[in-house]
Amino acid sequence: MQLQKENKPISDAEFLTLIEDKSDSFYRVAYGYVRNSEDAKDIVQETVCKAYVAKGRLNDPNKFYPWFYRILANTAISYLRKHSRTVAWDEEILERAVLEEENWGDSLWIRESLKRLEAKSRTVIILKIYENMTFAEIAQILKKPENSVKSLYYRGLKLLKERMQVNG
């Protein structure tokens, strides 16, 4: 006889509450990958659907967010692979950027620079800087040792700094 771990699945109401509590964060992470509002919304929606279908397999409901962010990152990366294209910066997008961000030029440069980083470093930087996560939380999301996450973070920052010095 095999002992089974008591695994109480997350209820639909709990799932909805967990999603609503961090929906803005989920959107920002997705947007960090695709830099397009509608695509980011689609990625979050797809991730919510995937997570809902798989929620019964979540072994520890206390680890919901690392589990969800991992699905979100994988969904965003898959989306980028399927839709590898350049984003056209037309007048409407630029006007929206001016209204939304005081320093849109700097923001645009940062986004373009992040886009040139390898996906793993970009993910770590987005989660660390924009979502204010700890290295331990990021390590849990990426299923990597904390020191590896720190290396990805600092390597990515070093590349960004080098680009700033070249362009500055």
Residue windows where pLDDT falls under 50 for at least 5 positions: 85-99, 101-105
Please write the string of helix (H) and strand (E) elements. Answer: HHHHHHHHH
Helix content bin: over 70%
The biggest sheet, with number of strands, parallel, antiparallel or mixed sense and barrel status, is: none
Organism: Candidatus Flavonifractor merdigallinarum
GO molecular function: DNA binding; sigma factor activity
Protein name: RNA polymerase sigma factor
Domain RNA polymerase sigma-70 region: 24-86
Structural key phrases:
168 residues, mainly alpha, 73% helix
What's this, in brief?
By secondary structure, the chain is mostly helical. Helix 2 packs across helix 3 (37-54), helix 2 runs parallel beside helix 4 (64-82) and helix 7 (119-130) crosses helix 9. It has helices at residues 12-21, 23-34, 37-54, 64-82, 91-100, 104-115, 119-130, 135-142, 146-167.
Describe it.
- The chain is mainly alpha-helical and 168 residues long.
- The protein has helices spanning 12-21, 23-34, 37-54, 64-82, 91-100, 104-115, 119-130, 135-142, 146-167.
- It is globular, with a radius of gyration of 18 Å.
